[in-house]
Amino acid sequence: MTRTRISLLVAAVLVLAAIGYALVPRGGDHLAGVVSIETTTTYRDPQLLAKAWQLPVAAAYHAAEFDYQRNQSFCGPTSVVDVLRSLGRKSSQEDVLKGSNVWTIFGYVAPAGMTLDEEAALLHLRTGMPVKILRDLDLATFRAELPLMNDPSRRYIVNFSRGPLFGHGHGHHSPILGYLEGEDLVFVGDVNRDYGGPWLVKADRLFQAVDTVDDSTGKKRGLLVVSVAPASP
Length: 233
Hints:
By secondary structure, the chain is an alpha+beta fold. The chain has a single domain, classed as Cathepsin B, Chain A (Alpha-Beta Complex). The protein contains 8 helices and 10 strands. The strands form 3 sheets. A 6-stranded antiparallel β-sheet has the order 3-10-4-5-6-7, sandwiched between helices. Strands 1-2 form a two-stranded antiparallel ribbon. Strands 8-9 form a two-stranded antiparallel ribbon. Helix 3 (about 55-65) packs across helix 4 and helix 4 packs parallel to helix 5. The relative contact order is 0.19.
């Protein structure tokens, strides 16, 4: 084996090790008292889910084929795929990264998934529409966005840590499908099928998960909002 091939092999092993470390669900002392939202009566309540799917933006996702990530590193690309499908565009996890600055190794996003800024760049590249990063939000500002999540001229992706919601896990991206204002529940289109599909969470609880730091960047997590161009008359 040549020295170049050995170097490439070592680099690949190191990258995979980094991916594995970043994607293994971990708790911590600060999560020891967290009660998972999976125990709440509203998490996947059938009646509330049926009501949520009737919201205008959620209906657009429902009409499309909602996609789920193919591995633990692919929540970012998959979220973009689902946004595009909700807009009536064809997209897949096989082609969504083409022409982007996001690279993969053995099918995993390297080195350890996508940051909020990388997700914003990919969303803009694929939609061709303005994308705004909402970061360092306080609760009041976060709440001001909630009614807008039902506006068909907008699409939201949320970047949050699973820890404050489930008591374990790591950073994650998923589309927000809508907001049930009367119940104060955010409808999150979780692209990880292991969590049962889209679920509902109290707004304050989701904010706690968004108001966390991405260790890979040292920056807060947040929301992405894409302004959808109106249809031509």
